[in-house]
Specification:
The chain is an alpha+beta fold. It has 7 helices and 5 strands, in the order H-H-H-H-E-E-E-H-E-H-E-H.
Length: 173
């Protein structure tokens, strides 16, 4: 099962929105709890994303940080500049579920727009439809590639652990 999932991910034969819900239950008890939490966050989005802006010390994955700018998306589709210290940063943490990032990366053009739901409480009263991050599409492709590589590394680890158990060899913790 894990080998087929790995092959499908490498070949582009599956999407993260299909692979993660299938893999998570199968990985329970085989992968470290931290890895399961990480995959769950990737599947559902990072609920603690504001930690990135509030502290230098957080446990959010660095590969999800992109260079870009954030704007208030207006109901008519236009974007307004935000006057807030967070908006003055050059880099932003993408908290969106990985399948959203995957979808946004497939749009035409070099510029991508990703919803930043964690900012709804800060800027919700400004009359916009939400806050978005505008970045180069290559940033999203990098996030996806890094996640895919880390996910495959986890699958390789689990397959190696299973092979050791089947051979009766002691397992490493």
């Amino acid at each position: 099962m894990f080998q087929k999932l790995k092959q499908d991910l490498l070949s582009g034969g599956t999407t993260f929105s299909k692979a993660l819900p299938e893999a998570l239950p199968l990985l329970r008890g085989k992968a470290p709890d931290e890895a399961l939490i990480w995959l769950s966050n990737e599947l559902q989005g990072y609920q603690n994303a504001l930690d990135f802006y509030r502290s230098q010390k957080h446990d959010l994955p660095a590969y999800r940080v992109v260079r870009g700018a954030i704007y208030l998306m207006m109901p008519d589709g236009s974007m307004q500049t935000l006057n807030h210290p967070y908006a003055q940063r050059p880099d932003f943490f993408l908290s969106a579920p990985i399948n959203w990032v995957e979808d946004f990366s497939k749009f035409d053009g070099n510029e991508s727009i990703v919803e930043m739901a964690e900012f709804a409480s800060f800027f919700g009263g400004l009359g916009g439809a939400g806050v978005v991050c505008v970045c180069n599409r290559s940033e999203l492709v990098r996030v996806i590639a890094t996640f895919r590589n880390e996910f495959i590394r986890l699958l390789d680890y689990v397959m190696a652990q299973q092979a050791q158990k089947e051979q009766g060899a002691p397992t490493q913790s």
